[in-house]
Specification:
alpha/beta, Aldehyde Dehydrogenase, Chain A, domain 1, Aldehyde Dehydrogenase, Chain A, domain 2, 2 domains, about 25% strand, globular
Length: about 500
């Protein structure tokens, strides 16, 4: 049985775990590995290693940090097949989806390679007579990342490349459901020349999370996950004096106006609703069809969804894989019958899906529920699976009102040929990321990713310019080089 353990101070942990957890192959339902679960003692070891490494890493030149990140980026590309295979085997997503995840993570590493430019400060000469002022941004110290199961490589890489480029040291707590990628990333960083202790990994569950949130040696915490846990992370870490960015759940909407290209809209709804079996925080889970667009759009979505090929990640023809665990599959499936009894029409029910040769896998086929209304669990909750809801609205205004009434505000998209409607949507929708004829508006690495309302707890978004700001703090110095002036108790002014 393969063993997944912690990575502390540049090497795998050699201790004996008090608790372990199963890592499943979602396509077969069989246990493929065991992961060690950290206690507060292992978290303390990781933080201690990071604390010891920080002074030297903080003082390491920007050129040296950048050189290591460039080598790391090249190693990611060279080991691409190994990484995508590991992601697919533990998460269940198909290989093409795993490769796309890795590519988006590599983009953030590339962004971090430009840290010498990103950390440039400002300088003002003669703000007062013979007095100059300049600003710099400095690292925080030891920072931590707590990441979800749905992107076991990409989401950690939203965090640690920028954090370590800024001069921090890092402790990662990945999901216990698919932890293998975290250790391989640590190995590649070490191979790239990252000094011991700069990057550490602790495996585990809530016990490890709570130890991180309360640890006095950690200055900041980044989190991506569900809204209830994001709220807990934010409140707990902030109460312990930490800087926090906690990205929560989502109910991403796609508003389709009657003038939209319905084939393009249907393609987008299916791709964004069922990709990665709906286990994406930016998945479209609610389509709002306006006026006469509804029946035809639903028909086209249903036709496409029925043709999707569901199978294991090892099948090159598969378009959608299984869900991460049996318990999660059962939870997602449980929304379909209440959706029907609450007045919705279950047009596609994925509960009967069987994949030949993989009968024990955690399968749920594409499911489609039409005429859903707010106030029902299948709409109100973050289902996080291949269940696409369709709501009907009589006008643009009604559709926008539905979206803005949602407590979530991660992403929202509009499909239309009307530039005025698109502009108004972008200005008035209460979401942090907006797509115009783009269903999954995830920004590139040189912008920042983050939602509004219950989709984000904290002030700063993740990666991009906000990532640099989150992992550093500003310092302003005012200097004068001359003989001491006479005593003057007046308030300083620019004279």
């Amino acid at each position: 049985m393969r063993q997944v353990t912690h990575w502390i101070n540049g090497k795998p942990w050699s201790g004996t775990a008090q608790r372990q957890g199963d890592v499943f192959d979602p396509a077969t339902g069989q246990v493929q590995a065991r992961a060690d679960f950290a206690t507060s003692a292992e978290v303390d070891l990781a933080v201690g290693a990071a604390s010891a490494a920080w002074p030297a890493w903080r003082d390491t030149s920007l050129a040296r940090r950048t050189a290591i990140l460039f080598r790391f980026r090249e190693l990611l590309a060279a080991r691409r097949e190994e990484l995508t295979g590991l992601i697919s085997s533990e998460h269940g997503k198909v290989r093409a989806d795993a490769a796309g995840e890795l590519d988006r993570g590599i983009e953030v590493a590339e962004f971090a390679c430009g840290i010498a430019h990103l950390l440039k400060g400002e300088y003002s000469e003669n703000v007062s007579t013979r007095i100059d002022t300049y600003s710099v941004r400095q690292p925080l110290g030891v920072v931590a990342g707590i990441t979800p199961f749905n992107f076991p490589a990409m989401v950690p890489m939203w965090m640690f490349p920028i954090a370590i480029a800024c001069g921090n040291t890092f402790v990662l707590k990945p999901s216990e459901k698919d932890p293998g990628a975290s250790v391989l990333l640590a190995e590649l960083l070490a191979e790239a020349g990252l000094p011991d202790g700069v990057f550490n990994v602790v495996q585990g569950d809530k016990a490890a999370v709570d130890a991180i949130l309360a640890h006095p040696g950690i200055a900041a915490v980044s989190f991506v996950g569900s809204t209830p846990i994001a709220r807990h992370v934010y409140a707990t870490a902030a109460a312990h004096g930490k800087r926090v960015q906690a990205l929560g759940g989502a109910k991403n909407h796609m508003l389709v106006l009657p003038d939209a290209d319905l084939d393009a809209a249907a393609d987008a709804a299916v791709s964004a609703g069922y990709g990665s079996a709906g286990e994406r925080c930016m998945a479209v889970s609610a389509v709002i069809a306006v006026g006469p667009a509804g029946d035809e759009l639903v028909s086209r979505i249903g036709q496409r969804a029925q043709q999707l090929v569901v199978g294991p990640g090892t099948d090159p023809g598969a378009q959608m894989g299984p869900l991460i665990t049996g318990a999660h599959r059962d939870r997602v499936a449980s929304y379909l019958e209440p959706g029907r009894t609450a007045g919705g029409e279950v047009l596609l029910d994925g509960r009967g899906l069987r994949v030949a040769g993989y009968e024990g896998g955690f399968w749920l086929g594409p499911s489609l529920v039409d005429k859903v209304r707010p106030g029902t669990p299948v709409y109100d909750d973050e289902v996080f699976g291949p269940v696409l809801c369709v709501l009907r609205a009589s006008s643009f205004e009604e559709g926008l009102e539905i979206i803005n009434a949602s407590p979530y505000g991660n992403g929202a998209a509009i499909f239309t040929g009307d530039g005025g409607a698109a502009r108004r949507f972008g200005a008035e929708v209460t979401a942090g990321m907006v797509g115009v004829n783009v269903p999954i508006p995830v920004p590139m690495s040189y912008y920042s990713f983050g939602g509004w309302k219950d989709s984000l707890f904290g002030d700063l978004h993740i990666y991009g310019p906000d990532g640099v700001r989150f992992y550093t703090r500003g310092k302003v110095t005012t200097s004068r080089w001359r003989e001491p002036a006479d005593v003057n108790l007046a308030f300083p002014s620019s004279s």
